[in-house]
Amino acid sequence: MPKSDWQAELASSYTRVEDLLAFLELPSLPFASTLKTPFPFRVTADYARRMRKGDACDPLLRQVLPLGEELLSVPGYSADPVGDLDALVLPGLLHKYRGRALLLATPACAIHCRYCFRRDFPYADGAMTRQREAEIISALQADAGVNEVILSGGDPLLLHDERLAALIEAIAAISHIRRLRIHTRLPVVLPSRISDDLIALLRQTRLQCVTVIHANHPAELDRETAVALSRLPAEGGRLLNQSVLLRGVNDNAETLAELSETLFSKGVTPYYLHLLDKAQGTAHFDVPLDEALKIHEELRRLLPGYLVPRLVREEAGKPYKTLV
Ligand SMILES: *Cc1c(COP(=O)(O)O)cnc(C)c1O
Ligand code: SF4
């Protein structure tokens, strides 16, 4: 089978820090040897092209560059900060919140964000086999309380079209499921993935589709991203964005206001601004709560209410994401 454009682009991603730093004309910038971290370096060429050359503090670079700080053990930071292991119904299926079940469709991502709370999740045993998928579909079938299935991961849009089509079809065959939500960073980091075939597939299902993308900084959204976003079903506020508040990336109200404005100009409604989940190795991204509250307060001064994302924190065992 010939590789489609997006697969070829994915295959040309940077997997060596040295290569990215050479491209950015920053050959002497220090970084942690990836050999010592369990979460390897990875970034798409598309995303790298939006970084400013020669700028060691570029907010996009900062999201992917493995730093020595990751190796520090900081009190309060753990491998499973949000209680996902306790919410596992089956391998690959999380049920934390009423009505919504979250399916870990694949452990793979196109880019490895250093602040990710899933960086230490036991994904190696998380690969989605057909057997597992069948078990998950049976579990969803048996639970009439679930009306929305969230495809997450990893990045669910890294599944090939045939696989994704089969999965969506199996979910749509369950009569009590109304909505399909897709949590994906690909419209931002690999816009070519939003192909004609994918759009046809999403338009075909009887399920109402909601897409939640993930961008943290306005510089992540370029023209190609805009084209990808314009193709996704957006009517009725069904195209949303979630961000993480990150030290050195977007920890000021002006940047976040520009992010909201840029997203909205491309048809995307700001949804959540997450406080950092305290995953091991991410403490250098933390913005303390009092500062986060000040930034959010300032954001409310700068923007119309509908462009202000909800500031939330995920707490293990809570029935919803906590508004702060
Ligand atoms: C965030 C999350 C959801 C979705 O929560 P919403 O508030 O509906 O966006 C569902 N399941 C899990 C496990 C989650 O972490
Ligand atoms: S799951 Fe999302 S935040 Fe985590 S590494 Fe993958 S793309 Fe980044």
From TrEMBL:
Gene3D superfamilies referenced in this protein's UniProt entry, alphabetically: Aldolase class I (3.20.20.70)
Radical SAM core domain segment(s): 95-310
Coiled coil: none
The keyword Cytoplasm is annotated on this UniProt entry: no
Lineage: superkingdom: Bacteria
Keywords: 4Fe-4S, Iron, Iron-sulfur, Isomerase, Metal-binding, Pyridoxal phosphate, S-adenosyl-L-methionine
Residues noted as binding [4Fe-4S] cluster in the record, renumbered to the chain: 109, 113, 116
Cofactor or coenzyme needed: [4Fe-4S] cluster; pyridoxal 5'-phosphate
GO molecular function, one term: metal ion binding
A Pfam family recorded for this sequence: Radical_SAM
UniProt modified residues of type N6-(pyridoxal phosphate)lysine: 321
Catalysis performed (reactions): L-lysine = D-beta-lysine
NCBIfam families (UniProt xref): EFP_modif_epmB, KamA family radical SAM protein
Family: Belongs to the radical SAM superfamily. KamA family.
Protein name as annotated: L-lysine 2,3-aminomutase
UniProt gene name: epmB
